[in-house]
Amino acid sequence: MSQGPVLELRGIDKSFGPVQVLHDVAFSVYPGEVTALVGDNGAGKSTLVKCIGGIHPIDAGEYFFEGEKVQVNGPRDAAALGVEIVYQDLALCDNLDIVQNMFLGRERTSGLVLDEAMMEEMAAKTLAGLSVRTVKSLRQQVSSLSGGQRQTVAIAKAVLWNSKVVILDEPTAALGVAQTAQVLELVRRLADNGLAVVLISHNMNDVFAVSDRIAALYLGRMAAQVRTSDVTHSQVVELITSGRSGELGLRNGNGAAS
Amino acid sequence: MMRAGPSQEEIRKHNLGTLLRHVHLGGPTSRAELTTLMGLNRSTIMALTADLTAVGLVREELPRDTGRAGRPSLVVRPESARVYVLAFDVGVDRVAAARIGLGGVILDRREAVRQRGPFDMAEVVGMLAGFARQMHRKTRADTVCVGAAAAFCGAVRKSDGVVRIGPNIGLEEGPFGDELSRKLALGLPVAVGNDANLGALAEHTRGIGMGCRDLIYLHGDVGIGGGIVVNGQLLGGFAGYGGEVGHMVVNLGGRPCGCGSRGCLEAEVGERALMEHAGRYGEAIGRDGVRAVVDAADRGDVVAQEALQRVGDWLGLGVANLVNVFNPEMVVFGGMLRELYLGSAAQVRSRINTVTLAASRERLRLRTSVLGDDATLMGAAELAFAQVLADPLEVLARFAP
Ligand SMILES: Nc1ncnc2c1ncn2[C@@H]1O[C@H](COP(=O)(O)OP(=O)(O)O)[C@@H](O)[C@H]1O
Ligand SMILES: [Mg+2]
Ligand SMILES: [Zn+2]
Q: What is the pLDDT of residues A86-106, one digit of tens each?
């Protein structure tokens, strides 16, 4: 567990036109661990994740992957490093089945020619490796799946290509209790299988249930990155709402970094 | 007087059991791997495998798909479809029976809802024996049952399987193992263990805790049970009552407990406490009840949120005490505690983080059960397999048709 970070950002700035959304953000994620990324609405979580995924170009700052400084100029660069993001809207095709969805947009990037049977086998192995037993048939159309099952398919798609970092943007937001439990267990299992996982969530029970570290964004600044075993619920809530909590967090109220 | 060293026969018995245990727990294993795992030479492994194959406990075959070119080496697999045990589980709201093959494969399974109320030994035993008969009728002639065991939600005396007290199911001093064995009429004794202890065994051997030598399993089923694994061994205690963490007092003078004391972990964290705090006692029971409260809390119901916070706080305190005493590598939440932990983890972990020694918790992993509703049943199966794993040839000779 004392390995170095697989992905590390330093000094990230990002503006949309005149509005600066991220200020000098540092962020590290570790293999085998779940890092929860928390912050109020508008704090910049999704923007940070899109910078990691190469959707948004960064204005300033450095991006390290496995200790090497890298340039990520688009989603393909991120995917090539092994960074996968499951966005809030999931981007699954309703009229395709599970296997087709898992390989959608990937046939070409892999450089392999895959037949249907091979794809089905790979999909089945991935789902089995995640101990997913909730889907009946891999040839089911995605439109027939529940919210939790859709989330599961999207996550399985993200880990299919030996990814190293998987980022989940509010995967439990729209789910009921039973499905939330399944997705949380899946998130934990990804990390226990050795992946670095980033979980964005507003639900403090979800965060404390599965995370090893918590990174709190406040008004576009990284207020603190802490180990989950070192903090309490109320400290994390303070970091989210005011950017600081006792010794932790930003030094002054207007959000200048400590 | 000096004790003589083990005889050739004892060494062989031990090696046969060890090899069988490897394929029982690890699944199909090549001879080469067994050679390394057991630290014996190839010819010894071959001889042991031949002995186990001859009596039909294992079989050797080519691996299914190696994906590699060249001649694949033979793997030794357990004869899961042929050699099995009967496993039973008696929970407050459910009784279950299963036929579980060597290797931990559930071959057949039956369960029924148990109505709450006084424990009716004849009814429960009759139901389980009926399940066993139904499953037995469907087996092939060459199958062999090598043991039977039951998980029970109460404190069980190790020596004779008598349930001393099961406060949540209303049984005291019940010779459950003997009664079930008699009703089964298969000439098999039925070993009985505490459900949480057996759940711990199952999660440790084939669940989320595989490879963890120090683990605590907490099982929620109206009350709270516990199973503690220390250095790879289940902590049984002097007479079998070890691990009853549900009756660890966390709140002196607190809520009354079914055991007669007050402020026990299960009195503060059990189903009744949660449902009463949420103002929903009597509305729903079991997992449905816990889910209803977590669901209401998610939707913003303040009473439900406070109920979960209160209960989560006590659960955290209970776990914290265990962490300070045992320094486990993992704590597993099973049964209804799965839902309760996930729904109150902020409270649970905050409490753990404030009252444990930093050194004791820094590498602690908190996890939910992966075996879920089968954990206790799978644990019973492990108990039932214990004999054949200790002396494979003798046990098989005794039970073979
Ligand atoms: N594409 C965009 N163009 C302009 N402003 C944006 C864009 N994306 C996000 N923002 C702004 O950036 C801020 C941070 O948003 P976001 O990263 O979505 O926050 P979070 O995910 O933490 O709720 C918000 O003020 C939002 O309006
Ligand atoms: Mg967002
Ligand atoms: Zn008690």
A: 887 767 888 888 888 888 877
Q: What is the SS3 assignment for B137?
A: helix
Residue A234, chain B, CB below 8 Å: the answer is: yes
Measure A190 CA to nearest chain B CA, in Å. Answer: 13
For residue B111, count CB atoms less than 10 angstroms from its CB and return exposed for 0-12, middle for 13-18, buried for 19 or more: middle
pLDDT bin (cut points 50, 70, 90) of residue A156 is confident
pLDDT in tens, B253-292: 999 999 999 999 999 999 999 999 999 999 999 989 999 9
Phi/psi at B289 (nearest 5 deg)?
A: -65, -50
- Write out the two tokens for A116: 């249907």
Measured distance between the N- and C-terminal CA atoms of chain A, rounded to whole angstroms: 26
The pair of three-digit structure tokens given for residue B271, joined into one six-digit string:
């189903």
* Predicted local distance difference test score (pLDDT) of residue A105: 73
pLDDT < 50 positions in chain B: none
Question: What whole-number distance in Å separates Cα of residue A215 and Cα of residue A88?
Answer: 19
Pick from B288, B306, B341, B353 the residue to mutate for testing the A interface (most A CBs within 10 Å).
B353
Q: Which residue, among B366, B62, B379, has the nearest Cα to B193 in the 3D structure?
A: B379
Is A231 in contact with B361 (Cβ distance < 8 A)? no
pTM beyond 0.80, yes or no? yes
3-state class (DSSP) for residue B289? helix
How far, in Å, CA of A52 to CA of A22, rounded? Answer: 12
User: What was the pLDDT predicted at A2?
Assistant: 54
CA of B296 vs chain A CAs: smallest distance (Å)? 10
- Rounded to a whole number of angstroms, the distance from the CA of A2 to the nearest CA of chain B is 11
Q: How many residues does chain B have?
A: 401
Helix locations, B90-120, DSSP H = none
Decide: B337 and B290 in contact? Cβ < 8 Å.
no
Phi, psi (deg, nearest 5) at residue A104: -55, 130
Please report where in the chains the tokens 């895959």 appear, as a residue.
A114
DSSP string, A104-137: TTTTTTT-----HHHHHHHHHHHHHHTT----S-
Residue A177: list chain B partners with CB under 8 A: 291, 294-295, 298, 339, 343
Q: Distances from the Cα of B249 to the Cαs of B220, B255, B340, in angstroms?
A: 17, 10, 19
Rounded to whole angstroms, the Cα distance separating A158 from A104 reads 11
Backbone φ/ψ region at A200: left (φ over 0), alpha (ψ -120 to 50), beta = beta
Beta bridge pairs of residue B221: B223
Q: Which two tokens stand for residue A202?
A: 């507003």
CB distance from A29 to chain B under 8 Å? no
Which has the closest alpha carbon to A200: A36, A2, A81?
A36
The predicted-structure confidence for B117-151, as pLDDT tens digits, reads as follows: 899 999 999 999 999 999 999 999 899 999 999 99
Q: What is the pLDDT of residue B1?
A: 53
**What is the pairing mode between strands A34-38 and A60-65?**
unpaired
8 A C-beta contact, residue B159 and residue B239: yes
CB B25 within 8 A of CB B206: yes
Cβ–Cβ < 8 Å for B82, B58: no
- Measure the CA–CA gap between B108 and B10, rounded to whole angstroms: 35
Q: How many residues are there in chain A?
A: 258
Helix residue spans in B299-374 (DSSP H): 302-326, 337-355, 358-361
| Chain A residues inside the 8 Å CB shell of B295 | 176-177
